[in-house]
Design goal:
Length: 512
């Protein structure tokens, strides 16, 4: 039975856990993170893929949350311009919904609540002449445009974990944390993976278990009762592309909710999300027929091209662990986070709520509390650091990486002329400067190995296994990438077979 001592044990490999592990490791703490499944397997890969301030939260007077999120948009964009990019949104004005003056007032605040250097401000538009108007029904004649950002959510989690590891953290996926035991000065826990048990002794425990956070606390003996979480399911559908331009839409529903329609993976449109209370199995969260019908119905209220449930090529859902408040409607529940701390014995920090956009700030505040408790005085650092692969114009994040990403990409085409343009662009968007590590042993397509699935070569699969904890076709096709949308039936089996053979090969080399 193996043993490990650390200063911080983080339970949960979603965005909050990974971001806390990264920040803490960068401040010199010895960190272990364990996740019972794959990184970002649940809520953190089931988002709307947005880095945004939350325009609709202004209606609920959550000005502090919106300001915090707006400020973080550009911090995140600078840190990882390969997996994030600015995105322009078009909001058609529906005469029967929010009045135009109210929308203008909201956008005025949205533009000014936090400093902007990258994202342009809002404007009124004429949909009869604007490119986004062609896909909309003729009754929508005017609208508004504003800016937020797009993010590859699952890759954001993985890159936080990669950076944590490169600062010394130990990242354990497919590893369950069983029966943590609290002592006066430390925690003891059993971590179980593949039938093997690792005993961990940690000075501080972080509960970043997401939807499981309250359940995890319930299993800790001697920990006081905690506030309840409200579990809200958000569902999305993906359909064949409904418009040709690269802008997104924000649609209003008569019930007051809003839904986004985003350009997705070149050939598709992503539509979401719903907000419904959830009490089911947290390991098996899927959209139900009513949610799919709701999203199709709202799309049909605006788009010329009709959308039916039969058009859906992929669907997914996630459960957001939101802080319980007095809101009646699920859509009105706050998206802000709460950090609960407990020093009645070895330190414990529990994370409740939050959103992808504020994950870096959440982690910074968490470690601002953890580090002094453990006798560390290292300052916060992540606001001025690139995520792995994001250092396209140097190690310090800057707006040039966002605004001139296309120029940098063109320079990589000169360095890798043997890569097909579409494949090169996918690599640059997924891996940024780490394309050099991915292709370190390759001087031409012959060095890439077998094309295990369309556009997926052995060299990339080996990289994902060795560098990004990928262990199955699902990890690769739906989280490390979205190639699952482009791979024919049977492709996943081929990827699983290759990965199984590769693990055997690596093990044989290790033993030999």
């Amino acid at each position: 039975m193996n043993h490990i001592d650390c200063e911080l044990l983080v339970v949960g490999g979603g965005i909050n856990g990974a971001a806390i592990a990264r920040d803490a490791a960068g401040r010199g703490l010895r960190v272990v993170l364990c996740e019972k499944d794959d990184l970002a397997q649940h809520t953190s890969s089931a988002s709307s893929k947005l880095i945004h301030g939350g325009l609709r939260y202004l209606e609920h007077y959550e000005f502090a949350l919106v300001r915090k999120a707006l400020a973080e948009r550009e911090v995140l964009l600078r840190s990882a311009p390969h997996i994030m990019r600015p995105l322009r949104f078009v909001m058609p004005h529906d005469e029967g919904q929010r009045p135009a003056w109210l929308i203008r007032a909201g956008l005025f605040l949205y533009d000014r609540l936090a400093r902007r250097e990258i994202l342009p401000g809002s404007q009124a538009i004429d949909l009869r002449t604007h490119p986004a108007g062609a896909a909309l029904q003729a009754r929508y004649r005017r609208g508004f445009a504003y800016s937020d950002g797009w993010v590859d959510d699952a890759r954001l989690v993985v890159l936080n974990a990669v950076d944590a590891r490169e600062h010394g953290a130990t990242i354990l996926t497919r590893t369950r944390c069983l029966a943590p035991r609290r002592h006066r000065e430390h925690w003891e826990a059993s971590l179980v993976r593949d039938g093997r048990t690792l005993q961990v002794r940690a000075r501080c425990l972080v509960n970043a278990a997401g939807p499981w956070a309250a359940r995890f606390l319930d299993g800790l003996a001697g920990v006081p009762a905690h506030g309840a979480l409200r579990l809200i399911k958000g569902s999305h559908i993906v359909v064949p592309r409904l418009f040709e331009h690269g802008q997104a839409y924000l649609f209003q529903h008569p019930d007051g909710r809003i839904v986004f329609a985003l350009p997705y993976e070149e050939a598709f449109t992503l539509i979401g999300t719903t907000d419904v209370d959830y009490t089911g199995d947290l390991d098996r969260v899927t959209p139900d027929a009513a949610e799919i019908a709701y999203l199709c119905g709202l799309a049909n209220r605006y788009f010329v091209r009709a959308v039916t449930p039969g058009d859906v090529v992929w669907q997914y859902a996630g459960v957001r662990p939101l802080v319980q408040d007095s809101a009646g409607e699920a859509a009105a529940v706050t998206r802000d986070f709460r950090l609960d701390t407990d020093t009645d014995g070895a330190p414990l920090l529990s994370v409740f709520g939050g959103k992808i956009t504020t994950s870096r700030k959440l982690a910074e505040q968490a470690v601002d509390w953890i580090a002094p408790v453990l006798g560390k005085r290292a300052p916060a650092w992540t606001a001025q650091a690139c995520l792995p692969g994001g250092d396209v114009f140097g190690s310090r994040p800057g707006k040039r990486g966002v605004l001139a990403f296309g120029a940098w990409s063109a320079a990589q085409a000169v360095r890798y002329p043997w890569l097909a343009p579409a494949l090169l662009q996918r690599y640059l968007r997924a891996y940024g400067t780490r394309i050099d590590l991915l292709l370190a042993r390759c001087n031409g397509m012959a060095d890439m190995g077998n094309e295990v699935a369309p556009g997926l070569y052995a060299a990339e699969l080996a990289y994902l296994v060795e560098q990004e904890w990928a262990r199955s076709a699902e990890d690769v096709l739906w989280r490390r990438s979205k190639l699952g949308l482009h791979v024919a039936p049977g492709g996943a089996r081929q990827v699983d077979a290759w990965m199984a053979a590769y693990r055997v090969e690596v093990e044989q080399e290790r033993v030999g």
